[in-house]
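User: I'll paste a sequence; please echo it back and then give the predicted structure.

Assistant: Echoing your sequence first, then the prediction.
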Amino acid sequence: IMKIGISTACFYPLETEKALKKIVDKGIECTEVFFNAECELTDEFVRELVRIKDAGVTELVSLHPTMSLAESFMLFSAYDRRTQQGLDQYRRYGEIAAMLGAKYIIMHGGKDNGILNCEQYCERFLKIAECVREGGGILLQENAAKFRAGELRFLSEMKKHLGKSAEFCLDTKQCIRRGYTPFDAIEEIGENIKH
């Protein structure tokens, strides 16, 4: 069943909680919370988001971490301390997903110029996914156009290396930006698309 929703990111630069309130007040049934600052990861802030969400009929399906632009640097580099810090942050997003009743955490991943080969990237993806699962969520690799996973061939390689463990968020707009259709993506990785 396909559900149509809206992300709090659509109201950027409106603060996250105010954007969520707009969505809930309009009776939108499906949403994603896009976090925009580290201070939004506290229990107190998340409880406020839960209160706002619970005031309406909105189902919170996914979270988008604030560190999207830093994932290549934090999670897909050769510097282990930074990687550990990134894993800890993703573990926290798993906890936040559980608090909010969201199922998925969406990741842009590494940039095209990353130092990890595809196999190493996939191993790292599994580590991140494990941290998210420990917290209570499911990690999805998005096909963000300006990242490695924007390339359909790379998504196919992930699927080949990881099998069912390669789980994807398909953004139709990002397909077009990268030069392929959503139907091409469905043909290549369809059974691994979760959101």
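The first strand starts at residue 6 and ends at 7. Helices lie at 16-25, 43-54, 71-75, 80-100, 118-135, 152-162, 172-178, 182-189.
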